[in-house]
């Protein structure tokens, strides 16, 4: 029988169980830290993916703009070529007229 104020002795194997609890708590803490790190990597990955998608959208937009500008340049060149021919003809006519004056 126990005397008043006396604490009962710990059951057999309690020290080992406490040690196991410590290891378990350490493992849980590491697991939680790993999960937090993984969640942060997922957030970073989502952000990078969003930035990449925006860049792809920008590239497509600018590709369309560049194509439109190329078409405009081609059209301008087609208008300029006949004008250059006319200028050449005018120059030769002017030269002929100058010769006839002299």
TrEMBL record:
Superkingdom assignment: Eukaryota
Alphabetical list of PANTHER family matching this protein: LITTLE ELONGATION COMPLEX SUBUNIT 1, PLATELET-ACTIVATING FACTOR ACETYLHYDROLASE
Protein name: ICE1 protein
Protein's gene: Ice1_0
